[in-house]
Amino acid sequence: YGLVDSTADYNNSSDTYALTAVNLTGMNWPVLRFWDRCSIAENDWAFLEVSTDNGASWSRPYGVYGQRTNWLEHTISLDYWKNQASVWIRFRLATDGGTTADGWYIDDVTIEENSHGPISFPFYEDFENGMTNWHNSTWEVDTNSPYAGAGAGLDTVPSRISPDCWLSLRPAGPMDLRGTI
Questions:
Q1: Backbone φ, ψ for residue 80 (5° rounding)
Q2: d(C-alpha 89, C-alpha 49), whole Å
Q3: Which end of the chain has fewer CB atoms at under 10 Å, N or C?
């Protein structure tokens, strides 16, 4: 089973979410993995939000807007919240009073320890072999017009970025920089 915001088009002027709390105590580098697809109308937004203060404030490490019928997998680093006993995670859809659409679909949500091994130094990335060295929320390899070679990193945000989201591209594993200048 997956999670969807509604069984038909979502409602106007609504703010709906799915919320859970997790304990990240003892985790060195927690990551959140999930698959999603969406059909979200103009001026409506979907967010992944994280809080450690019982929902008084939220961080948005991922947001989505627009139309995407294919499922995409996302890996979001939760290392900012490692060793926190109560981390709230919510998938939220906020809508205006205009048009509606089908909604946001989420599936196969997992939180696990980062299993990516160390990244060797010196590090070089040409994006020729995909995004395997990265945790990312929306980035993918672009082959249309790279600076050199066959690939470049591209943030795949549609024409507008979801408000207050930070869509990071972060190394997927640790890099030992001891002894470097």
A1: -60, -25
A2: 6
A3: C
